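FAQ

Q: What does a record look like?
A: Structure on top, sequence underneath. For example:
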């Protein structure tokens, strides 16, 4: 992969795709490198040119000795764009990369066309925790940190051991000095008072099971950045690695329609919950007779209610199942039980909801719902 001198250091980067298409910059998490984006790259390339790079202190980019700041890491991005003669780009940053994205949007909005902030926060963690981590890395290196990092980065249900091992290899072989210096940048960054200044089309992606930057952090970003859209994915911290298809689906809807209408916002969530295959079938089956109705449910149910930050997608999923069971809407009930594979609700969750439904909506309704749930589970796990 090529390197280029930017901001007085060699930066490793990879620029892929059709040069006639807009450029999307991907900025990785602390302790990873540009390979973190391998799963989403082929899904993005038909639509955009993709610029990935190794953040200072990571991968094959230079490791400098001073503690870093987000100002410094953001200036590296501006220098990289200048060196590659890229005037305006779309920017997607995950975790530390999301902090860099916030800095760019605040201090260099003229260079950013649209912004994706994934699994990040305006302020990540506490001063004490970051300082303790820096001390531990200086003392013991990175390998002892991996078990805790793996728990934060991947849900227990993510079973792709090959991918986890690849991420582990990158993490444990990273420069301890570069990692510790980047920890200082994350520790000291705080954009809570400046988020309202961001005036760019912005998508916030948050993981339902992300303990590092919880859903509440994503909701705060979306609530505070004017016009920002929040999409919740059933992942832990590395959403682009755990759910690349859903991640790219959300990203492309911002890039292809920067000022997302209620319909586009609803379609993003509808696809995330029900799955692309189901929505594609529904869209393909539309006629003049029901096209207005399809637009109505996408805008109202998915664009106005499911996009609200007050409940998680798992919670909304369980509430929906209870209501559909009580009302006896069997076809919709089956559809939403199938959708729990995307919302994170478990069979045990559904069982408890239907037990609760039996008390308040009647045993016959719950009995029918239990039969339907058993049929769905049996079909999925024959």
């Amino acid at each position: 992969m090529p390197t280029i001198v930017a901001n007085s250091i060699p930066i490793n980067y990879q620029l892929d795709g059709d040069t006639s298409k807009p450029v999307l910059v991907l900025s990785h998490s602390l302790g990873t490198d540009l390979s973190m984006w391998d799963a989403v790259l082929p899904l993005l390339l038909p639509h955009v040119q993709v610029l990935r790079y190794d953040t200072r202190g990571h991968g094959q980019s230079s490791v400098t000795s001073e503690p870093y700041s987000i100002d410094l890491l953001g200036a590296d991005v501006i220098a990289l764009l200048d060196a590659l003669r890229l005037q305006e780009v779309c920017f997607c940053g995950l975790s530390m990369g999301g902090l860099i994205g916030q800095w760019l949007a605040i201090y260099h909005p003229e260079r950013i066309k649209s912004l994706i902030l994934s699994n990040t926060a305006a302020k990540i963690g506490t001063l004490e925790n970051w300082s303790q981590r820096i001390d531990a890395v200086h003392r013991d290196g990175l390998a002892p940190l991996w078990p805790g990092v793996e728990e934060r980065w991947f849900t227990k249900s993510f079973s792709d051991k090959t991918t986890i091992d690849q991420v582990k290899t990158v993490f444990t072989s990273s420069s301890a000095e570069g990692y510790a210096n980047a920890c200082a940048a994350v520790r000291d960054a705080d954009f809570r008072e400046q988020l309202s200044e961001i005036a760019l089309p912005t998508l916030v992606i948050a993981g339902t099971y992300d303990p590092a930057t919880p859903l509440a952090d994503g909701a705060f970003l979306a609530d505070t950045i004017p016009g920002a859209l929040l999409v919740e994915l059933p992942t832990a911290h590395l959403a682009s690695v755990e759910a690349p298809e859903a991640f790219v689906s959300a990203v492309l809807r911002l890039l292809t329609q920067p000022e997302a209408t209620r319909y586009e916002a609803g379609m993003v969530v509808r696809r995330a919950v029900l799955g692309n295959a189901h929505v594609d079938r529904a869209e393909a089956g539309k006629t003049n007779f029901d096209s207005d109705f399809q637009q109505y449910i996408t805008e109202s149910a998915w664009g106005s209610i499911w996009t609200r930050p007050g409940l998680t997608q798992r919670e909304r999923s369980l509430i929906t199942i209870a209501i559909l069971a009580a009302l006896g809407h069997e076809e919709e009930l089956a559809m939403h039980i199938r959708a729990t594979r995307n919302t994170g609700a478990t069979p045990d969750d559904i069982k408890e909801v239907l037990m609760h439904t039996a008390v308040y909506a009647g045993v016959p309704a719950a009995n029918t719902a239990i039969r339907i749930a058993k049929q769905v589970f049996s079909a999925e796990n024959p």
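Q: Is there anything notable about this one?
A: The domain at 311-380 is CATH 1.20.1290.10 (AhpD-like).
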